[in-house]
Write a structure and sequence with these properties.
Elements lengths: L7 H10 L8 E2 L10 H17 L4 H21 L7 E4 L2 H10 L8 E5 L4 H14 L2 E5 L7 H11 L4 E7 L11 H10 L4 E4 L11 H4 L3 E5 L11 E5 L1 H4 L37 H18 L1 H20 L4 E3 L9 E6 L4 H12 L1 E2 L1 E3 L4 E5 L6 H15 L18
Parallel strand pairs: 1-11, 3-4, 3-5, 5-6, 6-7
Antiparallel strand pairs: 2-8, 7-8, 9-10, 10-13, 12-13
Helix pairs in contact: 2-10, 3-10, 4-5, 6-7, 11-13, 12-13
Length: about 400
C-alpha cells in the first residue's frame, strides 16, 4: 500500500492499482470527472447496503447522515485551508456559484462583471440576474488567460460604483490558464465588491489556500480532481460574508430544530447555505476519496507530479509542427488544451481514442482538445499521446495511415 512517504516510483504503481479506471484507457479527463478510488467505491457500496438492509426512514438514519455531512464538510475544508464553519455543502460547482451570487442583495441597474473564460455553470446565475432583474452583465476579455497584468487592468477598468459582484475562475476550464485571482480580488476588495471564484479546475489539482486568495466565495467540485462521486461540492464563504449571505432555498438544513412552540428558527451559520436532498453513500464516498488522497497519496506528490507532467506534455506538443497549444505555458495548472492544424478537435480526439484509448474531451467553442493530466498519469502514457499527436499532425484526415487492425486468431 502507498503512503505519503513511499518513494515516487513505487507509489505510482500502488496508486494506479487503487484507481481501476486508469487501466481502461489513458485517463486524461479528470477535469470532467476523476477516476474513483476503489476504497471510496467500497465505502459507498457498504453505505448503500446499510440503507438497503435497514431503510432510510428512522431517526438513526438522519443522525448518521448529519454526522457524515459534517465529515464531508471537514474534509473539504482541510483541502482548501478553511475552517469547518466556513464550508457550505452543495450538489455541484454551478449550484454553489449560483448560491453565492444569489445570496447577495441585487437591485435593478446593478452590474455583474465576469471574464470571457468562464464556464456556463458559472455564468448561469448571472444570465438569470440579467433576465429577471435587469442586472447588466459585463464580460472582460481575458484572451487565453496568459497575460495576468493585462487581465487585472481590464477587470479594474470594468468595475464601477454599480458593480455588485465579480465572478471568475481560478483555472479556466477552456484554456487551462491559471488566472491572477489574488491580484483581482485585491482590486475588488478595495472597492467593496464581492468576488465569487469558480475553483472546479483548481482544487485537488494545485494547492489552494482560500485565506490567501482574498475572495469572498469559492466554489469547487468533489467529483473532478478530488476523485469523489458526483453530487457533492463545496462552497467556501468568507467569515465576513457568512452573516449577510442570504439562503436561496428552503429545507431542514436551513433551520435549527423547531422551538417548543413549533416555530422554525433560522440558522445564522454557514449551514443555512447547505443544499438538501443528500444521497448518503455519495457523502461517504467523497469523504473517503479526499481522505485517501490526503493520507495515502499525499498532497505534495499529487500537486508536484500532476503539474510537472502537464507542463511536460505542453512542451512536447508545442514542439510538434502543426500543433498549437492554447494553454499558456507560464500560467498553467494541469489542463493542456491544443489544436492540430487541418483537423477538427472531434477528429483528433477520435483518433487518439481509437489508436491509443485516450479518454479526453473537446472544447467546442475553441475547436480544441483538452487533456487533464493527473498525478496517476505515467510518462509512458504521455509519450504515446505526444507520438500519436505528432502522427496526426503530419497528415491530413485523408492521408493519415489506417489504424492497425487486431489479428483474429482462429481456435
Amino acid at each position: 500500500m502507498a503512503s505519503p512517504f513511499t518513494p515516487d516510483p513505487g507509489k505510482l504503481s500502488a496508486v494506479r492499482a487503487a484507481l481501476p479506471a486508469v487501466e481502461a484507457g489513458i485517463y486524461l479527463n479528470a477535469g470532467t470527472a476523476g477516476p474513483l478510488p476503489a476504497e471510496a467505491a467500497a465505502a459507498m457500496a457498504d453505505a448503500a447496503g446499510w440503507e438497503l438492509r435497514t431503510g432510510r426512514a428512522h431517526a438513526a438514519h438522519f443522525e448518521t447522515l448529519e454526522q457524515r455531512l459534517e465529515e464531508a464538510r471537514a474534509t473539504l475544508a482541510s483541502v482548501i485551508g478553511a475552517g469547518l464553519d466556513e464550508i457550505a455543502l452543495r450538489h455541484s460547482t454551478s449550484e454553489a456559484i449560483s448560491t453565492a451570487v444569489w445570496s447577495l442583495d441585487w437591485r435593478p441597474g446593478d452590474r455583474a462583471v465576469t471574464t470571457t473564460l468562464e464556464h456556463i455553470g458559472g455564468l448561469a446565475a448571472l444570465y438569470a440576474l440579467r433576465d429577471r432583474l435587469g442586472v447588466e452583465l459585463v464580460f472582460v476579455d481575458a484572451g487565453d488567460g496568459g497575460d495576468p497584468e493585462g487581465i487585472v487592468a481590464a477587470v479594474a477598468a470594468a468595475l464601477d460604483e454599480r458593480t455588485r459582484c465579480l465572478v471568475l475562475s481560478h483555472v479556466s476550464w477552456a484554456t487551462g490558464a491559471l488566472l491572477p485571482v489574488e491580484a483581482i480580488a485585491a482590486v475588488a476588495r478595495e472597492r467593496g465588491i464581492p468576488v465569487v471564484v469558480d475553483g472546479a479546475q483548481a482544487v485537488g489539482a494545485i494547492p489552494v489556500s482560500v485565506a490567501d486568495l482574498g475572495a469572498d466565495f469559492y466554489a469547487f467540485a468533489g467529483h473532478k480532481w478530488l476523485l469523489g462521486p458526483e453530487g457533492v461540492a463545496g462552497l467556501w464563504v468568507s467569515p465576513a460574508m457568512i452573516e449577510t449571505a442570504r439562503p436561496i432555498g428552503g429545507g431542514w438544513p436551513s433551520f435549527a430544530e423547531p422551538d417548543v412552540g413549533g416555530r422554525a428558527v433560522f440558522r445564522t451559520d454557514v449551514r443555512r447555505l447547505d443544499a438538501v436532498g443528500w444521497y448518503g453513500p455519495a457523502i461517504v464516498g467523497l469523504a473517503r476519496s479526499v481522505g485517501w488522497l490526503a493520507m495515502i497519496v499525499g498532497w505534495d506528490f499529487i500537486h508536484r507530479r500532476g503539474t510537472a507532467l502537464a507542463r511536460s506534455l505542453a512542451d512536447r506538443l508545442s514542439a510538434v509542427e502543426g500543433v498549437t497549444v492554447v494553454t499558456p505555458r507560464h500560467r498553467m495548472a494541469t489542463l493542456v488544451t491544443f489544436r492540430v492544424g487541418g483537423w477538427s478537435a472531434e477528429a483528433v480526439l477520435d483518433e487518439l481514442g481509437r489508436r491509443i484509448f485516450v479518454i479526453g474531451r473537446t472544447i467546442p467553442h475553441l475547436d480544441a482538445v483538452r487533456l487533464s493530466v493527473g498525478f496517476y498519469t505515467t510518462e509512458a502514457e504521455l509519450d504515446r499521446v505526444a507520438e500519436t499527436v505528432a502522427l496526426i499532425a503530419a497528415h491530413t484526415p485523408a492521408t493519415l495511415p489506417p489504424r492497425p487492425k487486431l489479428p483474429i486468431v482462429e481456435p
